[in-house]
Amino acid sequence: MSSGVEAKSQVGSQKWLWLALLVAFAFAVWVQWPRLSDPYAVEEDFRNAFWMHRFQDPELFQDANLAALRPRLLEFDVGSVHLSLDSASLGYSLLFHFASYFGPIILFSKLLLFPLLLISVYIIYRIGEKVRGSGTALVLSLAFVILNFASPTSISMIGGLQRSFIFPLLLALAYTLMVERYRMTTTVIIVGGLIYPVVFVLGAITYGLVLLKPAPGRRLPKVQQRHWLNLAALLLFAPMLLLPMLGDDSTTNGRTISQQTSEAEGGLLSDPRYREGGRQTLFYVFPAIGRGGLTESATNFFHIVALSLATLIIWRVRPAVLVETPDTLKMLVLASVVCFVLAWLVALLTSSFLLYFPDRYTQATLPLFLLIFAILHLDETLRLSVAWLIKQRFKFAWLTLLVTLAVSGLILLLPAKNFKFLLGEGQNRWILLLPVLLLLALNILALYRHQCREQSADPEPAVALSNRSLAVLGVICLGLSVLYVQAVQPRFFVASPEERALYRFLETLPKDAMVAGNPCDLDGVPLLAKRMILFSCERLHPDDEVVYDGWEAYYAADGQTILSFCQEYEIDYLVVNRLAFEKEVVIEERLIVEPYMSKLVPLLEQNEFALRSIPGDYYLFEVGNIFIVPCTSEVLNTKTIIARQMAVR
User: Fold this and answer.
1) How big is the chain by its Cα radius of gyration, in Å?
2) pLDDT tens digit string along 436-487?
3) Which of 64, 165, 152 is nearest to 109 (CA)?
């Protein structure tokens, strides 16, 4: 009999697992389809992966400037196959190399969402099933799907970046530790390091903390012999996975500050690159939001705060939940805090972010832990809360009214820019109504349960929620979550019609052509037009002098300065945007970041710019405010430019 019940339970669990996977797949199709069908829609940071076009066309990006923009590339042959791999992310680049045999790398970056999401849902379902059962596992899986699609691409799987692997890798790490499959844990940590070195550091410390936890009845930890081989493997792979990161002058898309800059500006925290207006702002809101805070994204911080409030409520209702939470999850959070502190210590001691920016270690672990914690204890907390709400239903109704008035005031009075900062792009004011609707649903549920109690013949009937009531509440929450995801899902870079025309034209130029000009119009050129650039706003050149020379040439008043620049850096074509000569536009759109902006302001204040004065007869291409000219002495003839300037006057 017991075996039959167990088999039936397993069938039911598999049914809920398939439902979770189906919902996850449907969400992925809904969110990703507009991007899958548009070759000019990409995650902004994936534009830095342009060099992987060489997998399909080795003739691309042969210029020496590639070594400056991508200093971590390793070039070698394996038999007849030539490999170009990122030394700090060997596994990721190797994965794209194999994928390039079947289709474009841009398409593959978008398709990565599907396997990563389904793997993550499967693992998190198993975690929930192990700790609480299949019902909780289903809710946990669906909540995770919502969190993933509402999160920024710094942690979401939507972008197809190295960091898109962090959720599935963290979940695999936690689950293998929970079921004590330590060899698999070691494999996850090493594979994770091959894809995203942050995972290796975070995973190794988590594993170490688990081993250091004393066994029941012991005061001091004792590492068992079966772990020695795993620890030896981690130590063996550590140099290979971490040295490329330590030896490189880049962090995510930046670089360390030079010693000269550090001394001149007063240290790391004073460097203009890391202050407001710089390329790598450390703090948008001190000390929580920014690359030096808990998370880079305000939206992700909003999720952390909301989940933290839910966690506090659950702990207040049921104080024993902290003891009931699996130790592995606690160790994962503790490891992320240790890594966060370690990253800051290394940065302050070396004046560079050798261990990546500190937020890389907390921005995924914190919301993931808080979500798992909240959902694992949600069922019992809801039942106890509804019992309390029935007794306090009139006070709770007044509370709902006060919350509604407060939210309405925020919607009417809070400036639109605050909504954009906190909740991303779009008209998101109405999102604040979602908690009001949830409170209203709880009010209705409490009144319904009170009415059931009054109609019952039992003077003290149970007030626990029925499965049907929980299902109705779950459907309401899922519907509200869909609306939330639709409003705040991460925004991809989608090329405008003018940019698409620009990329199509540039792709007709010789494969060895070097392009310069307005840097912010060049961000998508290497990936979407497959042509080399000197530098762009997204990928600045590691040599400050090159960046200064580029902008000074762009805003030069005479053609000879521009021609000398082109000859020195072997520039073939210039992309010019007339709007970039308007000082107000440059400042408002942040077309120039610090520390360059302060030094280039005098150039912006002049009225005559050589590039803006080039006669239209020399344009190779023009669309909107953008045009392209060859960088030759004929085009940049100073007399011709002066004559044009005089004619305009």
Assistant:
1) 28
2) 666 666 666 656 655 665 555 444 444 455 666 667 777 777 877 887 888 7
3) 165
